[in-house]
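Researcher: Can you fold this with 5-O-phosphono-beta-D-ribofuranosylamine in place?
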Amino acid sequence: LKIGVLVSGRGSNLQAIIDAIESGKVNASIELVISDNPKAYAIERCKKHNVECKVIQRKEFPSKKEFEERMALELKKKGVELVVLAGFMRILSHNFLKYFPNKVINIHPSLIPAFQGLHAQKQAVEFGVKFSGCTVHIVDESVDAGPVIVQAVVPVLPEDDENTLADRILKWEHKILPQTVQWFAQDRIIIDGRKVIVKDATY
Ligand code: GRF
């Protein structure tokens, strides 16, 4: 499966995908990484692993539409079949999504629909929930609310702050995001409206 990954920052989820591919756990190839941030540490990770990375910044374009269309074009040129948002800090509109229908996925550090948007782990600590986690979902035009593919649950402990909770959640992000890429590679993802079924999944 040919994939593209969109990043804006640290890139630890990108690293998890690279590692899973290199170890043969995921049958995919990263055709292109796009960073909208020239300072993203994710770019260094690409260099280290010989993954092609392009910096495409919003400010290079007169409109969001042109920015999104350029990103889509670059991905299409590489034959990308699945787009993975891994800490990509921008909201994608129809002008991007129309090129990859039901083939854009995102990792979000909460059990959606709880705590959408920014600082999900802080929101969870402040709300006082006893469990949180992470979600891989299909990206549609809603923000952090598209059809759920898989979630992992972690406890929120009394002594947690947003950082300790974020660390606990991140370990699971690094498992369920590569796992989801592998399910797509195996053609096991069936989307029926809001319901996503993973063929032959054992839970
Ligand atoms: C992760 O917590 C992810 O869930 C959220 O942004 C963060 C990105 O981290 N969408 P990294 O860049 O993959 O290290």
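Model: Folded with 5-O-phosphono-beta-D-ribofuranosylamine in place. Residues 2-198 form a domain with the Rossmann fold fold (CATH 3.40.50.170).
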